[in-house]
Design goal:
Number of domains: 1
Number of strands: 10
Bound molecules: S-adenosylmethionine
CATH topology: Rossmann fold
CATH architecture: 3-Layer(aba) Sandwich
Oligomer: single chain
Length: 199
């Protein structure tokens, strides 16, 4: 397997994830992921702090996913999906609506020797059947997202820092807070909460 690949004109290097060394991912070495806060299409080749914390939580608490059907929503690099599979989920679906992510998740699943289903879909029209648990690392910035997730999916476990003021009203049932010393997105470190959206 090559250590360096190019996807969508971005050079990605296979590397250990800082807070989840059990997982290797093809990631960009650039520290800053986006040119403007709204440019979601430049955010994909990174292991976001929310995704790293949620992957850490899943690996350290495998009972949450063991034997279950799990969906990693807006999976990006696939980090949370890969953690769920390594932790013993029976079936894992990684979904995202962006082609480079789909390509990257395929490579990352192979690099970690895990079998996960990969689906290209817009989350706002996504309605899979027979899912026990939804996971979401570092949700994208859209004020409609949490109300939509709350009304559409039964059990959703989220990992993210408090990026926007409207997050606070949803971030009630926090089960763990990780202090991550990662330089990312212009900040030197982050407190990242793991929280249940509907419970
Ligand atoms: C901040 S990144 C997080 C990626 C990954 N979960 C992590 O923690 O590293 C947000 C992801 O949401 C995806 N995304 C944005 N809008 C989406 C939508 N409407 N449907 C599905 N995925 C979406 C982006 O393509 C991107 O991969």
């Amino acid at each position: 397997m090559d250590d360096v690949v190019t996807i969508h004109k971005r050079i990605l290097r296979l590397q250990e994830v800082y807070h989840v060394p059990e997982i290797k991912l093809y990631l960009s070495d650039r520290e800053t992921h986006r040119r403007k806060p709204t440019d979601r299409f430049d955010c994909w080749p990174h292991a976001w702090v929310g995704g790293q914390a949620l992957a850490r939580y899943v690996l350290d608490n495998p009972d949450i996913v063991a034997g279950k059907t799990v969906v990693d929503l807006a999976s990006g690099s696939g980090i949370v999906a890969i953690a769920a599979k390594l932790a013993g989920a029976s079936k894992v679906i990684a979904m995202d609506d962006y082609d480079p992510c789909i390509e990257c998740i395929k490579l990352n699943a192979k690099a970690n020797n895990v079998d996960i289903e990969i689906q290209k879909h817009d989350i706002f029209t996504y309605s899979p059947n027979n899912v026990d648990l939804f996971l979401m690392g570092d949700p994208f910035l859209n004020v409609d997202l949490f109300p939509y997730l709350k009304s559409s999916f039964n059990r959703v476990l989220i990992g993210c820092p408090n990026r926007m003021s409207h997050y606070s009203s949803y971030m009630k049932n926090v089960v763990k807070t990780y202090h991550l010393d990662i330089k990312f997105d212009g900040e030197p470190e982050y407190d990242v909460n793991i929280w249940w959206l509907n419970e």
